[in-house]
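User: Sequence recovery, please. Input:
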């Protein structure tokens, strides 16, 4: 039986759909009565045929779809032949740590305040030989925790799978994107 652990409160959880074998974006759009282009826009997808099993899709609200449709109608009525879609870059930062020195509680908190971040291949480096490589993971605006211990990944909690605590006061954590560019650093404060 799992034991309760204290974690930082998650950001509001959107309606999510987890991709299952055989799913198509078109079938999901029909099931939820959402236009395929709106479902793609809500998830930052450019190709409706590129879905991964266990990938989490945001199912946008009726209000979001209505606003999206209104924006598209406005864009189509302008003089341009094709609408211009501005894709905001992600802004993923390390915002804190919890449970320093206690493997069952240790976690690193991240927030994305920018556009959709496809984090597959991103890395977290603790500067002491521990490097976490992110799996296929799409981060929309919001927060998630990277727990140091083992566990089952979810849309708001990832698990490193280590068997010993690694967070300590004075350590600097670095978040690098898939190209190896530093996106954020965080100095664990002294107690």
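Assistant: Recovered sequence (191 residues):
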């Amino acid at each position: 039986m799992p034991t309760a652990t204290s974690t930082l409160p998650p950001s509001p959880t959107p309606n999510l759909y987890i991709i299952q074998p055989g799913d198509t974006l078109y079938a999901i759009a029909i099931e939820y009565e959402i236009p395929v282009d709106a479902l793609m826009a809500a998830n930052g997808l450019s190709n409706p045929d590129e879905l991964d099993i266990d990938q989490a899709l945001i199912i946008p609200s009726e209000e979001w779809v209505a606003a999206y449709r209104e924006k598209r109608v406005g864009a189509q009525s302008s003089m341009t032949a094709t609408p211009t879609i501005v894709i905001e870059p992600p802004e993923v930062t390390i915002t804190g740590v919890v449970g320093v020195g206690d493997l069952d509680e240790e976690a690193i908190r991240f927030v994305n305040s920018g556009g959709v971040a496809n984090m597959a291949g991103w890395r977290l480096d603790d500067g002491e030989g521990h490097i976490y490589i992110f799996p296929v993971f799409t981060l929309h605006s919001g927060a998630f925790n990277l727990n140091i211990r083992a566990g089952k990944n979810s849309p708001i909690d990832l698990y490193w799978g280590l068997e010993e605590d690694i967070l300590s006061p004075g350590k600097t954590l670095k978040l690098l994107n898939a190209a190896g560019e530093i996106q954020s650093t965080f100095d664990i404060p002294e107690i």
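The mean pLDDT is 83.
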